[in-house]
Structure formats: structure tokens, C-alpha cells
């Protein structure tokens, strides 16, 4: 297989998928890490589509596995079989406790008062994202959030503060990739043993594969649209990439997050995700309870 042949295969991939994936700025082609014409072609194509190096590598490896498994190269078939990405299936180590397949409207909130307010408004899933360097204040806020959802059906996840979540008896904890990577095996086992559900943030293929390795309760995918709330290392993913991620990770409850407003709920729902996370759409709304009711109708 010559370089010319590989380039022609890459162009065939782009012909089928460039319009779908709304190319970002083209990225440098990472150096090849394995042989195989499908691999090389997909690496070129994914880089041209703006996938960062680690994600381009991940998809290229999957495309080569797909080609080997099917016995032919198909430029039209974007990889979405979990086997081709080396995902766990049902044979991996024990995962975390399950949560509902569809978490519905997912409110990410700054303090316990907001958690209680949205739980009482009927929001089915709430997350406390409380930022403080004061360990005592964190512990008090987590306990207050757990108390705030009592008497409601809301499921409460605690962002980052997993020790406090265990101590307070929260429903679950949500971790970013850096937080997940920082955990020692015994710490991860402690969260699992406590029965907490685990949600993990992901921002592309490589991070989804990383999250899958621990068997989380749900996977969050984003940022779908531009957001000013967090500094993102990756460009906004867009709806087309979200749909591709949802096809690959379909065995998990999925949460879309990042810059999503009411007017975008319908197209996000069509990707197959069972939950949409919002921040500003609630906490910056003139009438948060009314906004919550409207967003829950859109989820339905």
C-alpha cells in the first residue's frame, strides 16, 4: 500500500463524513503508531476533520480493527462498534452501581440552596458543584445538599468531593478526567464499595475509552456548544460528534453538557442521549422554577 493509496482512502473518508462532522481547524497528523492502510487513512482524515491527536489516534485504531474484522475497508462506516474501541462489554472488572438509563433534566448547581430549590421544582437529577478551598465549608455544603433533596425523588451527585459524598450519604459523585486520573486504585474502590454512583466527564474518544475502563454509572459528553463556565482544552464538539459518541457509548446512560439552551434540546435529544445538563439555563433564568418546568417538558 503506497502513500498515494492511503491518501486516496483518506479522501474517501472525508467525502463521506466532512459535511457531517463540521470540520474544525485541521490538526497536525500525529506520527503513525501502527501499520495498516485503514489506520493511516483514518489518521489523516480525522486530523483534517479537526480531531485532536489523541482522538484521531483512537478512531484510526478502531477503523483498522473494523476493517480487519469485516475483511474490507469501508470509508462510509464511521466506527461505532464498542469492540473496535476495546470497550469493556460485560467481561470487565466490576463497575459502579447503576443509575437510571435516562437521567432526564440534569441541573448543575452552585450550592445546597439551589440544589434544594431545583429538587423541589421536580428536576430529577441535580449536581452540587461547590467550589471552595475550605474543607469544613465543603463538608457542610455537601451535608446540606444531601438534606436538601430528602423528601424529593431527585438524585444528587456531588462534583469532585467524593470523600464528603461518602460521609454524607449522597447518591453519587461526578468526576472530571483529571480527578479520575488522580485517584489511586484503593480510592476508586472505596467509592465503589460505598455504593455511590459514578459519573465521568469526557471530551472525546480517548477520554470515553478511559472512562469506560472503570465502568462508571453514566458518562457525560461535551462541551457540545461553546461555554464560558469552564476553560475547555478541546473545541466545542457539536451535535454530529455527540451523535457519534452516543452510538459508541450506547450501553451507558449518557448526559450531554456544555452551552445547551432550551432551543437546542430537540436536536440534542435526537442524538439518543437520555439526559441534558444545564447550568445557566436555570441559575440565570428570571424564574428558575418556570424554566425547569419548560426544560422538563422539552426533555419529554
TrEMBL record:
<feature type="binding site">
    <location>
        <position position="259"/>
    </location>
    <ligand>
        <name>2-[(2R,5Z)-2-carboxy-4-methylthiazol-5(2H)-ylidene]ethyl phosphate</name>
    </ligand>
</feature>
<dbReference type="GO" id="GO:0009228">
    <property type="term" value="P:thiamine biosynthetic process"/>
</dbReference>
<dbReference type="InterPro" id="IPR022998">
    <property type="entry name" value="ThiamineP_synth_TenI"/>
</dbReference>
<feature type="binding site">
    <location>
        <position position="179"/>
    </location>
    <ligand>
        <name>Mg(2+)</name>
    </ligand>
</feature>
<comment type="similarity">
    <text>Belongs to the thiamine-phosphate synthase family.</text>
</comment>
<dbReference type="GO" id="GO:0004789">
    <property type="term" value="F:thiamine-phosphate diphosphorylase activity"/>
</dbReference>
<dbReference type="InterPro" id="IPR013785">
    <property type="entry name" value="Aldolase_TIM"/>
</dbReference>
<dbReference type="InterPro" id="IPR034291">
    <property type="entry name" value="TMP_synthase"/>
</dbReference>
<dbReference type="InterPro" id="IPR036206">
    <property type="entry name" value="ThiamineP_synth_sf"/>
</dbReference>
<keyword id="KW-0479">Metal-binding</keyword>
<dbReference type="GO" id="GO:0000287">
    <property type="term" value="F:magnesium ion binding"/>
</dbReference>
<comment type="pathway">
    <text>Cofactor biosynthesis; thiamine diphosphate biosynthesis; thiamine phosphate from 4-amino-2-methyl-5-diphosphomethylpyrimidine and 4-methyl-5-(2-phosphoethyl)-thiazole: step 1/1.</text>
</comment>
<feature type="domain" description="Thiamine phosphate synthase/TenI">
    <location>
        <begin position="112"/>
        <end position="282"/>
    </location>
</feature>
<dbReference type="GO" id="GO:0005737">
    <property type="term" value="C:cytoplasm"/>
</dbReference>
<feature type="binding site">
    <location>
        <position position="159"/>
    </location>
    <ligand>
        <name>4-amino-2-methyl-5-(diphosphooxymethyl)pyrimidine</name>
    </ligand>
</feature>
<feature type="binding site">
    <location>
        <begin position="127"/>
        <end position="131"/>
    </location>
    <ligand>
        <name>4-amino-2-methyl-5-(diphosphooxymethyl)pyrimidine</name>
    </ligand>
</feature>
<protein>
    <recommendedName>
        <fullName>Thiamine-phosphate synthase</fullName>
        <ecNumber>2.5.1.3</ecNumber>
    </recommendedName>
</protein>
<keyword id="KW-0460">Magnesium</keyword>
<feature type="binding site">
    <location>
        <position position="230"/>
    </location>
    <ligand>
        <name>4-amino-2-methyl-5-(diphosphooxymethyl)pyrimidine</name>
    </ligand>
</feature>
<comment type="function">
    <text>Condenses 4-methyl-5-(beta-hydroxyethyl)thiazole monophosphate (THZ-P) and 2-methyl-4-amino-5-hydroxymethyl pyrimidine pyrophosphate (HMP-PP) to form thiamine monophosphate (TMP).</text>
</comment>
<feature type="binding site">
    <location>
        <position position="201"/>
    </location>
    <ligand>
        <name>4-amino-2-methyl-5-(diphosphooxymethyl)pyrimidine</name>
    </ligand>
</feature>
<keyword id="KW-0784">Thiamine biosynthesis</keyword>
<dbReference type="GO" id="GO:0009229">
    <property type="term" value="P:thiamine diphosphate biosynthetic process"/>
</dbReference>
<dbReference type="Pfam" id="PF02581">
    <property type="entry name" value="TMP-TENI"/>
</dbReference>
<keyword id="KW-0808">Transferase</keyword>
<feature type="binding site">
    <location>
        <position position="160"/>
    </location>
    <ligand>
        <name>Mg(2+)</name>
    </ligand>
</feature>
